[in-house]
Amino acid sequence: MSVSAAQPPGPLQTPTVRGRPCAIAAALEIVGDRWSLLIIREVHLGHHRFGEIARNTGAPRDRLTARLKELVAAGVLERATYQEAPPRWGYYLSEAGRGLIPVLQVLRQWGNRWAVEQPPISMRHRDHELSVGHTCDACGEPVDYAEVNRVRVTDEC
Fold it and tell me: 41 near 23, Cβ under 8 Å?
């Protein structure tokens, strides 16, 4: 299996909001349309072939082709051959793509609560519902967002 992937883009032209660098805007430049996150969901669920991704997302084939190329170029997906003759390619999450799995889980959790009448799936860990949240790196306690402070990390903000 041969793999091809572009290097993830560096913060060369970080999008700004009101003149300040914004990581959320930068991330949305890469994965901010409907099809990108659905593609990432499908690849994460083990659907690596174009036809599987097309069927499960409902994306128009031309749009899917364009988004797959963009996600590979952005370093979110890697492309690997699974058949030599004729050449057939599969898509796999890169390290950056795997970093988006918690984002998908948070969106699923939000959608289950606010966007659908009955959740279509339940994510389970050891027979218990999986809930996504944040814990403090230092103490391991669950985060109460009322106790969170924003801290400027660069002089550019």
Answer: no
Q: Which two tokens stand for residue 63?
A: 């749009």
Query: Higher confidence at residue 113 or residue 78?
Result: 78
End-to-end CA distance of the chain: 44
Ordered by where they begin, the domains of the chain are: 3-147 (1.10.10.10)
d(CA 149, CA 134): 14
The whole model's pTM is what? 0.79
Cβ neighbours, 10 Å, residue 32: 12
Determine the 3-state secondary structure of 18 from DSSP.
coil
Residue 61 in tokens: 């084939």
CA 35/CA 102 separation, integer angstroms: 17
For residues 81 and 2, the answer to whether their CB atoms sit within 8 Å is yes
CA atoms within 13 A on the CB side of 132: 15
Predicted pLDDT at 53:
99
Bridge partner residues of 88 (DSSP): 83
pLDDT for 31 = 96
- What distance lies between CA 137 and its chain's CA centroid? 22
